[in-house]
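$ fold --in a.seq
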Amino acid sequence: MEEQKPQETERSREATLLLKTDMNCRLMVNNDNHGALQKNTPLRIALPLGSHLINVITQDGLLEKEWTQDLNNEEQIVYLIQLAEEYAQLQAKREEEVGKPLGIECWSVDQIQQEQMTAATEVGLAKVFRDGPDTPEMVVIPAGSYRRGEAFNKYKVTITRPFAIGKYPVTVAEWKCYVEKGEISYSPSDNDWEGDNLPVTNVSWFDAQNYASWLSTQTGQTYRLLSEAEWEYACRAGSVTEYYWGDEIGDNNCNCQDSGSEWSRKRASPVGSFPPNIFGLHDMLGNIWEWLEDIWHDNYEGAPTDGKPWSSGGNQLGRVMRGGSWSSFPRYARCAHRHGSVPTIRNFNFGLRLARTLP
């Protein structure tokens, strides 16, 4: 009878890989996530003998390295992952590119307004139009590219098709018409501010969606909430500064804290109380937070680059809001600032502005 050979133990088929890195990164081994790899903190991993696919990615995703590591015998292999020098070069290149104007940011005021006229003419509309006496006044926005986000983390977005956006936030008067003609039971509180020309407040994300749906049925057009990318594109109107009028809050440019407005920290202001941006839009910053279509994500990693709403992943219980309000500090009323809330909440700072899809 042939003598049985003892089976090799699991450990006898393993080698040890000792990884060191010169900057923090994320580690993947054979497409499995092994978490964070810290600078100057070696990580020891036991792996079966054979070939293994190793990936390391910097925390911001700017630099990724991949290699196949062969482990042929039971010993420890030390591998030094050098990222810092190449990362610094890529970072410098990105900062140089971000500093350059892009797309609409290169256009003059006259060019921007001419592009608006052209986009409107191509779909048979005026630059500013209404679909009916009780519908919001809309402004045509041309397609174009811009850099979205904070100064330290901008990325390119291309709005691929023209669209229309409310010249103002939806008003109390426009919502009253919806209550009367739409036969709905919910009439939001006006907070005792009184005035049909105030932005409607105390509406949830779902209330806003229902209003857009009703308006679409009434007009035969497609009304909807803006995507977050559309909102920032429309808000900036070609500007690259913190606010669409400059880098400082200034005096009487909008309604938020420390803005010099007579309504600051007191209440919402009548729509159109402040100068518009280059597109002709009023109250994009300050006055009321505006609900958007997108699901809330903590950052832009994986965000669409074509202007569409981000409707997957993220925090399914949150929706994006933009613009700041009459009670916000100036840093929250900037073009790039993001805010999120639960879509069922109704609040005296929360309102909406609609988009309309163009043919």
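$ fold --in b.seq
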Amino acid sequence: MTTADGLVTPPGKTAAPSPALTPALSPARRRRRRSDNLRGWLYLAPFLLAFGLFLIWPTVYGLWMSFTGTSLAGTNTQFVGLANWKEALGDPQVWTSLGNTVWFTVLSTIPLVLVAMLLAVLVNIGLPGQWFWRLSFFMPFLLASTLVSQFWNWMYNPQLGLVNTILGWFGIAGPAWLQDPSTAMISVVITTVWWTIGFNFLLYLAALQNIPDQLYEAASLDGAGAWQKFRSITLPQLAPTTVLVLVLQMLASLKVFDQIYQMTGGGPGGSTRPVLLYIYEVGFTGYRLGYASAISYIFFFLIIIVSIAYMVISSRRSVKA
């Protein structure tokens, strides 16, 4: 079959319309299409405005500020180039606070993943009073950080706190939990686990309830025990949720600020000071906003590098699997 423009179409196939023969849109349809596009952009405008005002602009402005000597004490915005960045990379306090941040992340992420999974499994297998346990585990997550911090400050009080009172019943002299460098960090970690484990618990519980019962029934027919079912069915089915919980928890722990600021203030002796608290002290106590911005972006780039490395490793594992 030969088309109007001289092209030959194989037998049994319909010739596609030639671009030259495609009818052009009428002026009315073109105006309607432009109107629809404009209406779509108008609907997006509030979000785009807020996104640019509260995310894009502060990000760009903060990056520019890291190359200046901006201070809260004056209007000095003199361009200093990479001086702030060089000072930050050579500042031992920056690396100490980064180390504290990583240490807190390790100490908090492990129980907030494993214990949350264990609690969800126990509730899912039919523990009596499921509504009570769900409420008990999730309720602390709804509390404000100030309330949680004040509550645990009292719990850890060396003279009047409940923790040392209970230890005293067994003849054990409790330490000054938040004033001792050897116990301050673990004390904040315990507070964080108690406070935030409910969110991870609900994620795991939802994932467990989506596992088909037929898998467990088939395993029972094959003579599998409780441990074999957990290892061969539950854990593999929870793998995607575990990856999600792990990533979210690591990011949340790396951004720790509230509970440490309100419980220890970064002490004693800087043993619990995370990098965000050091940035706050440099910018709003030392008035060096430019230097604080440089530290912020160094921390930001480190998180990006870790995230990219994690995604590369995860993708390679999934390809091998």
